[in-house]
Write a structure and sequence with these properties.
Elements lengths: L2 H22 L32 H8 L4 E4 L3 E7 L4 E7 L8 E8 L8 H10 L1
Antiparallel strand pairs: 1-2, 2-3, 3-4
Length: 128
């Protein structure tokens, strides 16, 4: 090796040592444990009152006709009904007793996406 190579070598070793020391001093925190989402709503969700709460899918279809969407997952079913005035989403879960899935939550909005009162939307859907 030439003399210029020998002069560069200690500087390179020092630079690499500093780089490694900077990286080695940082220990990432352990990942926080994230619990999986619950399989369904809490039992208290089945004691709420409001328009359509506690209804089954058969009752909703009798009221509003065939749903525009019928989405089924392992513990949840979402029925969506709509006309030109509003869109109503009804979320059904199996109650703790394990019977037919029942409505535990209802969302309603205009076709443009503005929230509306679910009772008003249900009335508009029934009027057709």
């Amino acid at each position: 090796m030439t003399r210029s190579h020998l002069a560069i070598r200690p500087a390179l070793v020092a630079l690499l040592s500093l780089t490694l020391a900077a990286c080695g001093g940082v220990v990432p925190p352990p990942a926080a444990h994230v619990a999986p989402p619950p399989a369904g709503p809490p039992a208290s969700a089945f004691t709420r009152s409001g328009p359509l709460i506690g209804s089954d899918a058969r009752h909703l279809i009798q009221l509003f006709g065939q749903p525009r969407l019928d989405i089924r997952e392992s513990t949840m079913r979402k029925l969506q009904f709509a006309n030109g005035r509003c869109v109503l989403d009804a979320y059904l879960y199996v109650p703790p007793q394990g019977r037919e899935p029942l409505v535990t939550h209802v969302d309603a909005r205009t076709p443009a996406g503005t929230d509306v009162d679910p009772a008003s939307c249900a009335a508009a859907l029934q009027a057709k």
